[in-house]
User: What shape does this take?
Amino acid sequence: MIIIENLSYTYQPGLPPALNNVSLQIGEGEYIALIGPNGCGKTTLIRHLNALLLPGSGKVVIDSLNSREVKNHLEIRRRVGMLFQNPDNQIVGMSVEEDVAFGPGNLKLPSTEVRRRVNRALATVGLSGFEKRMPYTLSGGEKQMLALAGLLAMDPAYIILDEATSSLDSGGKEKVLAILLELKSRGMSIIHVTHNMEEARRADRVILMDRAQVVDEGAPRDILIKGEQLKALGLAPPLIVELMERLRPDGHEIDKRVLTVDEAAAAINRWLQGSSEEFNDHRTRKAGGYA
Assistant: This one.
């Protein structure tokens, strides 16, 4: 478990805090979507989770390892892998297999274990058969898969994505999301920083930040349906939420606690059936009056 207690951080004296008294817990196998406007503190927060930044006040503890203790930093960074937006910044090998082997090789693991981890990581991200390819020959999406494979080869307990899907096309995004859900099923915890609410709805829990603080959190169905709150922060609600907010025919309310196309279709169908029954009742009463 990651435990964050009363975490505050300021980059320079005299500047407003980048984090202000943030407290959170992230459990094993939990998929977190971290959302909020630019400059709200998301990146500052996640950089505390693998000791790239240390608390100004408060504390961050990863599986009982306090990030303030320098002796814990190597193990924390092994347990918490971070995937950034630009994969080129994380690729260091001259070939695909060399790049994926770099991390576990530095752990002084036996060569057979390094090979096992490389093969498993490449299979997980769909790059089996790419072992001898040079990274610069890969597409942008394949490079992101390679960077992710490098993290997986370290056998982390947590993976953090900092807008890592923002430059991918829709197919690439779906592939990454499918891999994340597979990793979650293995017990890995995912912390996904994203501006894409369609991605956020796949999470177990959504954490909404603004002005260096957590302002709301809960299940996607509880947070992402708050279209006006999201728009006030400059975030685009899911398209289905936008649609359901606009559907107010004849002043009747439609169930808006929906996040998927199937749920929206069912809600609209229920409304149509109710409207049809109301119309038939009205017509029957009117016909009876004339009689």
